[in-house]
Amino acid sequence: MAGTPVWSVDPRTGKQREQVAVEATPSEVDRAVRAADAARGALADRAARIVFLRAAADLLDASAAHVVEAADAETALGPGRLTGELARTTYQLRAVADAVEDGAYLDVRIDRADPALAPPRPDLRRYKVPLGVVAVYAASNFPLAFSVPGGDTASALGAGCPVVVKIHPDHPATSELCASLLRRAAEDSGLPADVVSVVHGFDAGLELIRHPLVAAAGFTGSIRGGRALFDAAAARPVPIPFHGELGSLNPVVVTPAAAAERAEEIGAGLAGSVTLGVGQFCVKPGLVLVPEGADGDRLTGALTKALGETEPGVLLDHRMRDGFVAGVGERAALPGVVAPVTPGAGGEHTVGAGYLTLAARGLLADPRAYGTLLEECFGPVTVVVRYADQGEASAVLALLPGNLTATLQLSAAECAGDNATPAPAEQLIGQVTRLAGRVVVNAWPTGVAVAPAQHHGGPYPAATSHSTSVGGTAIERWLRPVAYQSVPDPLLPPELREANPLGLPRLVTGAPTA
């Protein structure tokens, strides 16, 4: 192969497995985008999209053994985790197909003409249309659910938008396999294969976001990488929507009453959440507010025990491993920071889980000096901040930027609305609602259910928009509304005609014209 090679690498050994592809040149990116744009007309067929999305899910399920084997070889996430992720991915594809079939996502609204109103109202009919070609930037930590066959791709295709995916270098072979299955499903469904295509390479990613035929983009990754693409999307001659998930600390607040009630349970649960997927979940709890005193000590004792018994794990690549080791080292060196279980290098290719702790009063005395503790550290580590009272806990929360999640561990009395407690739950709910896109109570944020009411996003830098990348409303990111005024019925799109030939759900105002 000519050009810059793209290698599949085994993170367990750091060795190259196979050359998968070559990085795309600007002309190759241009061809991929133009082919995707040419497929827009075929993808406008809602019935064909529904068949395609379900066929893609079926093909992925039928190829599960091969897909899981390829993904495990490139990510070291393990067959168990990857089997679950694949099930979530195919469920997501089918859920989008169901949403397209239902038709509510089109948000059809009809205001029939009413000349008796002052001023008179003309006939107005509104629905949503697809934006065009969507650029998807695959995530490192979810080689399936947030990559080629993942939520951005599924929702964009459901909206009627062809997709060009910039593949993540951590799992190129898995991505090529999944792309081939999606393209095959498209052809089996009577659609052009180019409704889904992929490109490799950092420079290709920049070419993609700048291409004049790309109408929107979806990204899951780091703040640095996402912000660069976000800025590039805004700097285009015609700016485009950029829906990015960039980074999150996912704070947890444990109230004194909750610590008194179930300290050991909370400590063990926290350890499980921090180490799930070797700490490589975007919703990993990275900052935990624990009360000072004996009950808080019992909690941290349980956390120490659980993390101390956790075996070293492999991160997605050695670059991330090096970043994790350097990041925890920098944080651990800050004045007043203690590491009861030292996170960091666990071996030549592994990392060990742990946590850092300090007093809230020290953090609040000089927040700038402790700024890195308020930033995401990708891997199996969390920061425990011990607070003396609710005022200190609230002051720490006030320092935080936007997050994907915020979690409260409350007592049974607090959940019942007992306002006699020292830290009223209502106050905490209100404070963390300003911080996060999802508020969790007496559970852990790791794991994002694919459901109509889900919201996976949050204030910046958790996300660059107020949309969700998971759940039933994710499809809305790739649509724009259009209103038709006084257009004769035969000239209207079928979705808006008076007889409702497609049987869509609609919000209608006014009586039919005689």
Query: What spatial form do the alpha-carbon principal axes imply?
Result: globular
Please give the order of strands in the largest beta sheet.
Answer: 12-15-16-11-10-17-18
Unreliable parts: none
Distance between the termini: 69 Å
Q: Assign the structural class, choosing from mainly alpha, mainly beta, alpha/beta, alpha+beta, or little secondary structure.
A: alpha/beta
Most strands sheet: 7 strands, mixed
Helix content: 25-40%
What's the oligomerization state? Answer: single chain
Total helix count?
A: 16
**Percent range for β-strand residues:** 15-25%
The count of DSSP E runs of length 2 or more, i.e. the number of strands, is 20
Rg: 25 Å
Mean pLDDT: 95
Q: Describe it for me?
A:
- There is one protein chain.
- The chain is of the alpha/beta class and 514 residues long.
- 38% of the residues lie in helices and 20% in strands.
- The protein has 16 helices and 20 strands.
- The strands form five sheets. Strands 12-15-16-11-10-17-18 form a seven-stranded mixed sheet, sandwiched between helices. Strands 7-6-5-8-9 form a five-stranded parallel sheet, sandwiched between helices.
- Helix 3 (46-62) runs antiparallel to helix 5 (79-102) and helix 5 (79-102) runs parallel beside helix 6 (151-159).
- The termini are far apart.
- The model has no long low-confidence stretch (mean pLDDT 95).
